Every structure is written in structure tokens, then in C-alpha cells.
Amino acid sequence: MPHDARAIEQGANWLGGHYEVCIELGARDEARLETALEACWAIGGLIGCWPGRSSSDPAARISPTLEFDGLSGIAAIPDFGECVCSTHVIREVDDGRIGSTWVCRWERWPQ
To answer: What is the predicted pLDDT for the residue at 110?
Structure first.
């Protein structure tokens, strides 16, 4: 299969250098978390989003949602090209106590 940097289902696209931005949202608030997740996907240059890493079929696109553990897409980085990207949520728990909630956006360095 030829290499396609836009193919989220190709495992090799998720290996190597990347950068990640995580935003701490504070105490658990599902409405605030959903808004932050939607904002991550509203940023220009993103194509997607899809649940997991199984398909980049335009017909399988969904709206950003907390229903899935992770969401994947394609990011167009000016002067570098396109690469896979994803978002995920971290819900801290420390010794049984609920901690902060984070939303994270991850992007692979373009090849």
C-alpha cells in the first residue's frame, strides 16, 4: 500500500515525532469539556473528525463528541503539508478522588 499521510488507518502515520497541546479545564464539567473539544475541531486547517483511527472516509465523519475515547483527523500545516491528528480527553483520578479534566490535541510532524 503506498504511503498516504492523510490515511488515518495506516499505523505508520502515527509513529515518530509529534507535538501535543493539552488544556487543563479544571473540575469535571461535561458541558465545558464538550465545548472545548468542539473548539479543538473548529480550528482552521482540520479535516475530520472520525471516531478512532479506523477510517478517513468522508461518509463516516462525525461531529466532535465525548462518546468515543479518541477522535482522528487530518491537519493541514502551512509550509509543511498534511498529517494525521487526534484529540483525546484525560480525566484525572488520584487515590479515588476526581481531579482535573484535560482536552488534548495531537499532531504528527508532516513527512
So the answer is: 64
Report the C-alpha gap between 41 and 48 in whole angstroms. 8
- Among left, alpha and beta (phi > 0; psi -120 to 50; other), residue 88 is beta
* Residue 82 confidence (pLDDT): 86
Instruction: List, for residues 27-74, the tens digit of each pLDDT value.
Output: 889 999 999 999 999 987 888 899 988 888 888 889 988 888 889 999
Neighbours of 49 (CB within 10 A): 24
Measured CA to CA in angstroms, residue 96 lies from 1, 29, 87, 93 at distances of 46, 18, 25, 6
Task: Please provide the DSSP assignment of the chain as one string.
Answer: ----TT-TT-GGGGSS-EEEEEEEEES--HHHHHHHHHHHHHSTTEEEEEETTS---GGG-----TTSSEEEEEEEETTTEEEEEEEEEEEEEETTEEEEEEEEEEEEPP-
